Amino acid sequence: MSIIKDKDIDDIKENCLNSIAELIEKYKDDLYMLQRLHTRVVNYLPNDLDYEYKKREKNVNRTNYLTNEKDMFIQIFLSKNQYYYLPNNNCFYEYNGKNYSIVKDDDIIHKLLSTISKDRTLLEWKHKTKKNAISIIKERSLLNSIPESETIQNVLNVLYPSIFPTKNQAKYFLTIIGDNIFKKNSNHIFLVTPKTKKILNEIDNIAYLSIGYTNTTHNFMTKYHENHSYENCRLIKINECFSLELWKDIIKKIGLDLICISAHYSNRYENSDNYLNVKADEELKNYSFYLKNNSNTDIVSNFCNSYFTCIGLGSGSNDNTENKQCKIEWKNVHYIWKQFTSNMSLPNMIYSNTLKSILKEKYSYDESSDSFINITSKYLPTESDFIKFWENTIIVVNDTTISEDSFDNEIEIDELCALFKYWSKQNKNNESILSNGTISEDNVLKILKHFFPNIEIVEDKYVLNITCNLWNKIDDIKNSIMFIYEENKLPLISFDAAYNYYCVFCNTNSYKFIVSKRYFEKYFKFYCANHIVYEKFIETASFIEV
């Protein structure tokens, strides 16, 4: 109720008295009218005003009561039914304490009216309450909602450990997505692997479909470019061994939850950099800020300190011998650099020409041999020996010499590992062989792709159109055929049984290597194609022809 000032009261009083005085003056010669005026003012007016006052007071109290009931109803309704809204796509959302979902406004209105009908107090204000509730919902931004711990943990359990190596990495990633939604730190660049980009594309799609935002992951890059400032670059470590198809199915189910949690983290921690500074462990912080905190020269120094050893020429030593032992060709240095970036989960942030120039300032360089002098590396012997093994034992079949009816020979990556180990043992007395022959399949792939880029590799497992002079796979199978024929003594034999006989034959004759079942079947499907029946059986009569 508004406060009436004394001056206002005086003005009203004066106006009323003036009006009565005017009426008295008007009817001063008419006793009847004067009596009527007296009766109205003295008898009726106080009662009328008292009635109006009570009626108004009742209406005000009723309005206040209904307003309080309405406000209380809406407060309780929205605490039990967590609805939110985004104006950019004019879309409503519901959160049930576990998951977020898109909801139609008609469904919200229906639930509102149904609930109001049960509370008969607000029936006469039903539509006003509905309108007020919808207005309040429209002020509740989805991106300012606070998800429950269960929702957060469900999303984190999907991201860690299948996609991110640590839970803090997953939280950091979510905070970055939230920053992008709110357009914070738009100058930052987040460097990821190409496979990771496919994950991000799915997040982009779900963000557009669910909240109407585009380019949610626009600043995630798969390659470093020279125009990128190290100061603005951040690193994100993501596991490579995840199923993209499985991720697509998962993101459809948790996509909106992921987006809301991302927005929540961005609000809670202010931005992703602040998350690293106040919440993340030192390992994550140092990795993510690696480019920000290091220059080109710093990074190359870290590389050199970890991967190279300088060898000085001692007095009385044979200079030619010493120099020969301590020379590393540029192509091998570049390979070791790739090992460094791979082992450190770093992008290729220094171009090869720049890297070479920085190294020339640190080490002696021989232009004629394109080599760095008086340095060695513990990471090189295995790779160097494998290249020697390849050059001495592997025969590459030229594609132009292969006819369409030729058998497509191949060696599997794990077989190359075994052959290399065997070759190393055979040459253990050779002083130029420095390793013990143990090498991982991943390392073999890296060597082949770096030093022999023209070699055809399928599925990172099968190296096509090569043979090895240490092992004639076809001859081994041919040698076993009569043994299989004599042992089986039936007109048909399954691939499985034939392969088992082949393995027995190889073990009996102390063969060093056994071909894979895939290669074994491939051989018979090529040479005995007309004698394969029921898809899985071979006519043994064909063995005599092979």
Kindly describe this structure:
Helix content is 57%, strand content 10%. The protein is mainly alpha-helical. It folds into five domains: 14-144, no CATH class; 149-293, no CATH class; 311-376, no CATH class; 383-468, no CATH class; 474-544, Recoverin, domain 1. α2 (31-80) packs across α4 and α19 (473-488) crosses α20. The radius of gyration is 42 Å and the shape is elongated.
Topology of this structure?
Blueprint: H1 6-26, H2 31-80, E1 82-86, E2 91-95, E3 100-103, H3 105-118, H4 126-138, H5 149-159, H6 167-181, E4 189-191, H7 194-211, E5 220-221, E6 233-235, H8 244-269, H9 272-278, H10 282-288, H11 290-293, H12 296-307, E7 309-310, H13 319-325, E8 327-329, H14 330-343, H15 352-362, E9 364-366, E10 371-373, E11 375-376, H16 381-393, E12 394-396, E13 410-412, H17 413-426, H18 441-451, E14 457-458, E15 462-464, E16 466-468, H19 473-488, E17 492-494, H20 495-508, H21 517-527, E18 532-533, E19 537-539
Parallel strand pairs: 4-5, 4-6
Antiparallel strand pairs: 1-2, 2-3, 7-11, 8-10, 9-10, 12-16, 13-15, 14-15, 17-19, 18-19
Helix pairs in contact: 2-4, 3-4, 5-8, 6-8, 7-8, 19-20
Quick tags:
single chain, 546 residues, mainly alpha, 5 domains, three-stranded antiparallel beta sheet, three-stranded parallel beta sheet, 21 helices, 19 strands, 57% helix, 10% strand
Overall average residue pLDDT:
89
User: Between the first and last Cα atoms, what is the distance in angstroms?
Assistant: 109 Å
In quaternary terms, these chains amount to single chain
What is the total domain count?
A: 5
Low-confidence stretches: 313-325
Helix content, binned percent: 55-70%
> What structural class results from the helix and strand content?
mainly alpha
User: Largest sheet, described in full?
Assistant: 3 strands, antiparallel
The coarse silhouette is elongated
Cα Rg: 42 Å
Q: How do the strands of the widest beta sheet line up side by side?
A: 1-2-3
Portion in strands: 5-15%
